[in-house]
Amino acid sequence: MYNNWEELEEAIKDCNKCKLCRGRRNIVFGTGNKEAELMLIGEGPGADEDIQGLPFVGKAGQLMNKAFIGLGINREEVYIANIVKCRPPNNRDPEQEEAMACIDYLRNQVMLVKPKVIILLGRIALNNILGTEYKITASRGKVIEKKGITYIPTWHPAALLRDETKKIDFWNDLKLALNILKK
Ligand code: URA
Ligand code: SF4
User: Fold this and answer.
1) Tell me: the pLDDT tens digits for 113-150?
2) Would you tell me which of 39, 101, 141, 154 could form a disulfide with 18, CB atoms 3.0–4.6 Å apart?
3) Is the CB of 43 under 6 A from ligand 1?
4) DSSP state of 146
5) 55 lines ligand 1 (CB under 6 A)
6) What is the pTM assigned to this prediction?
7) Which pLDDT tens digit goes with each residue over 151-161?
8) Among 105, 97, 75, residue whose Cα is nearest residue 10
9) What is the CA radius of gyration of the chain?
10) Are the beta carbons of 43 and 125 closer than 8 angstroms?
11) Which residue lies with its CA nearest to atom 2 of ligand 2?
12) Does ligand 1 have an atom closer than 6 angstroms to the CB of 29?
């Protein structure tokens, strides 16, 4: 673990710890306020993220931005990162081996940001952070406390694109996070 952002960013720069390094254009490290109270964790970069080197800038990200605006969340005020930092080919799920190779970077980011609340976006984030015993359907919208951090699992924004009825859950889960932060 690195105690500062410079060393962490330097360490990941040419990372080839897993095979996802072969297909990437850019490492998508993470973005936002490095002292954020609210952090959001996704799965991994898609095509747009790979090109721009930034998380959640494609269709799913734009939908998430709309929810942010509606709820008065400033995207620059939160911190956004992913389980894997390089794009899985054809947007497949990251494999266990790849997530394991990459997750220390994310844990280091969490250690440096020190968020109060972490929103886990979808099954991959939930299972890699809290464990495979958690099911996304049963866990979403629940408040899970662990080691001084409050976790709230919710749908992945891409799931909202496939199923509009999930939007209200997503909105409520973000609102729940904001309410916890207000306390
Ligand atoms: N989906 C993710 O999980 N992360 C991104 O950064 C973009 C889409
Ligand atoms: Fe390294 Fe993570 Fe990219 Fe794999 S996904 S090459 S571990 S930065």
Assistant:
1) 999 999 999 999 999 999 999 999 999 999 999 999 99
2) 101
3) yes
4) E
5) yes
6) 0.98
7) 999 999 999 99
8) 105
9) 15
10) yes
11) 102
12) no
